[in-house]
From TrEMBL:
Entry superkingdom: Bacteria
Domain Histidine kinase residue range list: 187-404
Protein name per the record: histidine kinase
The EC number(s) this enzyme carries: 2.7.13.3
Catalytic activity: ATP + protein L-histidine = ADP + protein N-phospho-L-histidine
Record keywords, A-Z: ATP-binding, Kinase, Membrane, Nucleotide-binding, Transferase, Transmembrane, Transmembrane helix, Two-component regulatory system
Pfam families from the UniProt entry: HATPase_c
Organism phylogeny: Bacteria, Pseudomonadati, Pseudomonadota, Alphaproteobacteria, Caulobacterales
Amino acid sequence: MDYRRLLLALGAQIGVFVFGALSWLALTHGLLASALLCGLGALGLAVLGLSLTALNVTRERLLNRLAPGSTFPSELNRRRLQLLLDETPSPLLLQTEDGQLIAVNRAARSLFDVAYALPVASRKVLLGGDGALTGLGGQVRWKGATYAVHRAEMVEPQQTSHLAVLTDISADVRAAEATALRDLLRVLNHELMNALTPVASMSRSALELLGDDTPESRAAAAKALERVVARTEGLHDFINAYRALTRLPPPVMQPVVLDEWLDVLRESFTAQWADKGVVFDCDSVTATVLMDEDQMWLCAGNLLNNGAQAALEAPNPRVRLSVREVEGTVCLRIEDSGKGIPTGDADQVFLPFYTTKATGTGVGLSLAKQIVQGHGGALTLKAAVPGDPDRLPGACFEFGLKQV
């Protein structure tokens, strides 16, 4: 309030007092007209004073809002940022230190049917038992759609929050599944034709030989039937492998002390491969992870056995299992000293029934990959790094498990 408005307001108050006193005196002396006139003057001055006071208060508030460091520009920026976030098509989730999971933008609020924060039930379904956004895997499914998860940490002076961006990759996943199905049908057709064609040919030959009814023809027919039996047994094994691959149950996730689990894995591998000359190096780590022990035994066993078989094809066979902790995840790496996987085969090693071994079923790596995916991770074949002293020269597979 400047000095001019202050003087006017003060003058108005003095005027109200004076006119009020004159009105009272006129009223006591019976001068009703004069008393009424003085009262109206006092009322007018009072209204003028109140108007000046209100005008100054409004002016001060406006100046305070527009002053440097005021909250008005901050509020304006916040609203602009919210408008931009609401236009973002990818759902954004923010988890604060108190565990609350907030739907940041319109896409997230629409996806989870909330106005602000996700309820506890939805949070547990999305994040699992620990309810931590940091434990969310690389992919998540919600309402029949698949989303890729990208996480970031937001460090503020008072607290640390975690942000997750969900990108809808359902179309990509469906395309990949269609491609995988075509590849699977192609491999199945190849394997079945390879098994059934000689069976039909040898069966026909055996039937013709039995028609001759001579000792030589009967002996030749018996040999042909032996080959038919061997081929049908091989086809039976192939079908059993296919059933194991397609009937894998969902994993039963439980906390497992990784060091104890690795000790048993080390003993099992040594008992099977030590007498063949394969050296096994295995790290130790004091961490607890979530996994289905039986399924992960099958996964790690397939990877280690493949590594041992490959290592035996080169001098000084060696297999290594190394462990490292990265942001709430325990990464396991299995590598061998064999000849490695040719570059042309790298994209096909995870296909069901694809194998480069004469006696292999082509199920081990595909089953291992399916088990790791069921645990919320991804089994990857790491490319060779020439000249890296920390890497064995053969194949190298890596996957992660959630840490408790």
